[in-house]
Amino acid sequence: MKRRSVHTQFGDLTLTEEDGAIVSLDWFWSDRQDDSALLDEAAAQLAAYAAAEREDFDLPLRVKGSEFQRDVCAAMSAIPFGYTRTYGEIASDLGVPAQAVGQACGGNPIPVIIPCHRVMGAKGLTGFSGRGGVETKVALLRHERAAGLLI
Length: 151
Fold this sequence. Notes:
Keywords: DNA damage, DNA repair, Methyltransferase, Transferase
Domain Methylguanine DNA methyltransferase ribonuclease-like: 2-62
Family: Belongs to the MGMT family.
Distance between the termini: 38 Å
CATH topology of the largest domain: Arc Repressor Mutant, subunit A
CATH architecture of the largest domain: Orthogonal Bundle
Strand order of the largest sheet: 1-2-3
Largest sheet: 3 strands, antiparallel
Number of helices: 5
Organism: Sulfitobacter sediminilitoris
Shape: globular
Helix content: 25-40%
Catalytic activity: a 4-O-methyl-thymidine in DNA + L-cysteinyl-[protein] = a thymidine in DNA + S-methyl-L-cysteinyl-[protein]; a 6-O-methyl-2'-deoxyguanosine in DNA + L-cysteinyl-[protein] = S-methyl-L-cysteinyl-[protein] + a 2'-deoxyguanosine in DNA
Order of helices and strands: EEEHHEHHEH
Number of strands: 5
CATH class of the largest domain: Mainly Alpha
Structural class: alpha+beta
Number of domains: 2
CATH superfamily of the largest domain: Winged helix-like DNA-binding domain superfamily/Winged helix DNA-binding domain
Strand content: 15-25%
């Protein structure tokens, strides 16, 4: 495994690469700053996103977890920049309970890149598993100027 960290206004983010794919993004600074073309590209894309110069990511990702976890991550990845969906909407698409979708969102191993911050509760904002909690979720949504969001 290789790691690289990036400073952003959303906090320090550490990317982990394994076997040619990004497998995690964590909310801390790592003293370990490995060299790799993929980490170079991932760090550049994160920096461009944070600078409002990029709206999506084009990186090889590998979500470790159950097929259900991968399905929820795929559904979150399909939410466009600046838009939100509810746990209930994703649950309806997948034919599962909204609570299960919420748990899978909380277990997202690659937040920001897989945009779990774009998933809302039926009544609006809910928690966020990233450092800073819901305040970080709000900051990400404001950064994206999320459509129709009153925050």
